[in-house]
Amino acid sequence: MELFSELYNCYYQVLRRLLCQKESLTIREISDYIHAEGFEESLLSVVPKIEDGTWNLFQKDGELYLSRLKSDFLMPLSSLQKSYLKALLYDARIGLFLEPQQLRELQHLLADVSPLFKQEHFFYFDRFSDGDPCTEESYRRIFRVLLTAQKKRQYVDIDYNSPTGNRIHHHYIPARLEYSVKNDKFRLIAVKDTNRHNLKLEILNLDRIRSAYAIEKFYPCEIDLNKILKSTYYAEPVTLHITDRRNALERAMLHFANYEKNTRRIDDSTYECQIFYNKKMETELLIEVLSFGPVIKVTGNKSFLKQLKERLQMQAEINAVSF
Amino acid sequence: MSGFHELIKNFSKTREYVRDFFVYGFKTREEFKEKSPRTYDNERRRLESWLRPYVRRDYVSNGINLSLAIDSNLLDSNPLFRVWKTKSFTDNDIILHFFILDLLMDGSRMTAESITAALLTQYESLFDAQTVRRKCNNYTKEGVLIREKKGNTVLYSIDHTITSWLKSNDSLPDALSFFQLAECFGVIGNTLLDQLDCQRRIFRVKHSFFVHTLEEEILLSLIQCMNQKCDVRLAMKSFKNGNPRTILCTPLQIFSSTRSGRRFLCGYIKSYKRFTCFRLDSIKQASPCTVSEEYDKLQELLAQNRPFLWGVSFQNDQGHRLDTLTMTIRVRLPAEHYIVERLSREGRNGTVTIINQSVVRYETTAFDCNEMLPWIRTFTGRILSLTCTDKSVEQRFCVDLQTMYHMYQIETRHQENI
Q1: What is A226-294 written as a DSSP string?
Q2: Hey, which of A50, A140, B65, B206 has its CA 20 to 30 A from B346?
Q3: What is the mean pLDDT of residues B63-81?
Q4: Which of A9, A57, A265 lies closest to B89 in CB terms?
């Protein structure tokens, strides 16, 4: 079972889609498709092979290219893919997606296949212990309502217990379901109409949603979630100076790999790293930075630096009387 | 660069370049010292070709910084999966791939000879039977074709039952869209979505380290060794000095950090008689060896040790067997009950005791309390006391804190007492 195999090659996928077209294609149409779906320089490799017939996958009729394949061409699954599917069947979260009957059918189809991996192969030593109750039917029902509504841009009537203890009842448009590997929890990234007909971003913990019902109201156009999310980022990123001792540079670069960042070398042992973030990420980023201790120094922005200093000041005051 | 090819034969060299561009993202051409400038130029050009929308160029005094700007908060899939879809192939490979599968699409069972003949008559493609047989056998090995023997005749066919089931169950692509980001081997889920033409933008995953995908081939070898309960020979490269070394160990479990993004192989080294963890990204190759007679016994031993692990260290620098750490935290209950919850859910095997409405005590016993310091520092501003039977932990915590006070010009009183 090879993971790095031509079976999964991008060219194979792009050509398969072109070859499943029922209509004849011009070389321009083929080129445009390869340019859109392939790699940046794929055109240079693929198109000449089609044009000169080295890859005689198309039948040439004047200026037109007609696929030699049957239009219902299906790529069979490899052992690796079947084995991967089998492994997913042992994960409790699969029940969020498949009904018991579907699970039984897939189990049956994969009866002779060994799972690629098992849960016991892994030990997530710092995963939080209060993960979501993914096996509870009420949780699964809410999950499915939100997932279906998200795909249809359908409004959902949500009754929610906020972390501060308030009960919130509102109509939201689900934009994405977000899962945290560390927290083992799902959150709903939702938008709601404000009185000014703007969209406001809200984040709700799934295990705090008491009820969710889709209503007969649909948002008319695609929601550009990234545009909304990016608009929430602070104009000024956090700037960190990383001193490369205790392997700090490598640790920090990996630790903050999830964030959009920009790093440059200042001198032989110091690096400057700018991290882009928004208010909702702020506390987590702050404690992540604190966890590095003195090998990371925050030099900006002012607000982030102020919060970090406040924590240190509080600690210094405790030290003065307690330690 | 006339010899430039967008596709590659071998993944290992590329793996290191992609990692350097993604994780570091500040090295200029001159700073990639291990390879020749020409190799760097080719690798850079490939990377730009595969990952163009994510490549950022910054002009700095000593050259151009090329980096990958990948913000997982804004992405529904892992762009680095594309790196796995770059395996080179021959002209024969691609022609045989499509034509053989197309021939067998309708459920036919054919010999290599009859396939060879049909390739000529139906697709005007001339191949010798041996080439066709080799391809069919290769696809049988990969599980794409079924090979059965009837007397002296070998027949090849395709079973589309699972593919058809996947096509008719719309909720499975949703599951694949999720698991490709949330679990290991996500690239395989992603190839399934490619095949089903079902790439969906429905999930975001936090604390999922995209760069992990580069280690999946090594991970696959290690898991296969674990399944077979056999020892493994690891070819490693040190992060500190770049020196290569080889280690023979019994692979037992993959330890994964959801915070730092590091993954490790936990193995048992017979010659040292101890458990040790190796970072997956430092393993260059994992080769299976003989079956370990004591595999199950070692698994049991690891299970007994696991409750005393904070991270991946089975022993501290002082050589102590176990150390106990106690920390008291300032809170304002009930308003700040979330701090008590944090201690409980993040404190692994530690105990949390509410002393009174303003003080909470956390206590744990672990092999190496030094590993706890990054987590302890996240409570900065609230730590009333910290004691540890490994005094170097207390000392390091206090020294680091002092350094930070100095760094940020924090006013302190009675510094001599700390």
Answers
A1: HHHHHHTB-SSPEEEEEE--TTHHHHHHHHTTTS-EEEEE-SSSEEEEEE--BHHHHHHHHHHHHHTGG
A2: A140
A3: 85
A4: A9
